[in-house]
C-alpha cells in the first residue's frame, strides 16, 4: 500500500485569494472563447502576476490531443480553432492593460502545423496593436516537426518558451506522447534563431537528484537562459501521484545547482509556474 504523502506546513500559508480570481473573471466576462491559464488553473500567483500587468492566455481551444498524466485539461478537441478567439484575446489584452502577455496552448496534433502559424499571427497582432508590450509564447511541440517551429518569427516575440516538464526518464510515464530529445531540439533551434529561450519543469514526480542534474545540463547545452522550477500538485486524486513535496530550502538548492551548471536566470519555488513573475524575470535577462 502506498504511504500517504502529507502537505508540508509551509505550503498552507500560500493559498489563492478568491478576490484576485474574481477580478480576473470580471475582466474576461462575456468572452466565450478565451481562457486564462491564471484563472482556469486557479494559479496561486494570480494576484502578483495580475498586479504586475502579466496574464497567460490559453489559445486554440481548451481540449488537448495529448494525455499527460499530470494534467487535468479536457481531451480530444473536435473543432477547428474558433474564429472569434484571437479577437477576444486582443480585446482582453486591451481591457486588462497588460505589459507582458504569455500565449500558450493545448497540444493540437489534429492541426497540420500544430498551430505554429496561428501562434505567429496572434503574436504579430498583439505586437502591432500594442506597441511596447512584451510577448512570450509558451508553445507545444508543433507535431514534432522543426519546420513548423520555424514559422514563429523572432520579431513577434520577446521570449520563446517550451516546457520540458520533467526528467527524460519519466517521459514514458507522465508525458508519453512527447519526446524528450525533440523538445530539447526545439530549445536549441529557437536559440539558433536568435530568440531568448525559456523552459520549465515540475519536481515531485519521482525524479532523482542525478536525473535532475542531467536535465539541467541538457537545458544549459540547448542554450536556454531562463528556467522555472515548481512543485507538482495532483489536479485530482485520479491523476499521477505526487512522489515528494519539496521544501523551500530544496528549491533554493535546485536553483543553485542549475545556476552552477550555467543557466543564467532560475526561478525556483513551491508555487513557481512557467509564467510566474515572467515580466520581472525577463527584465533580469536583459540587464
Ligand atoms: S500537452 Fe499540455 S495541455 Fe495537453 S495534456 Fe499534456 S500538459 Fe496537458
UniProtKB/TrEMBL annotation:
Gene: lipA
Subcellular location(s) per record: Cytoplasm
Protein name: Lipoyl synthase
Signal peptide interval: none
SUPFAM superfamilies in alphabetical order: Radical SAM enzymes
Main localization (coarse): cytoplasm
Catalytic activity: [[Fe-S] cluster scaffold protein carrying a second [4Fe-4S](2+) cluster] + N(6)-octanoyl-L-lysyl-[protein] + 2 oxidized [2Fe-2S]-[ferredoxin] + 2 S-adenosyl-L-methionine + 4 H(+) = [[Fe-S] cluster scaffold protein] + N(6)-[(R)-dihydrolipoyl]-L-lysyl-[protein] + 4 Fe(3+) + 2 hydrogen sulfide + 2 5'-deoxyadenosine + 2 L-methionine + 2 reduced [2Fe-2S]-[ferredoxin]
Domain Radical SAM core: 50-264
Binding site for [4Fe-4S] cluster 2: 64, 68, 71
Natural source organism: candidate division WOR-3 bacterium
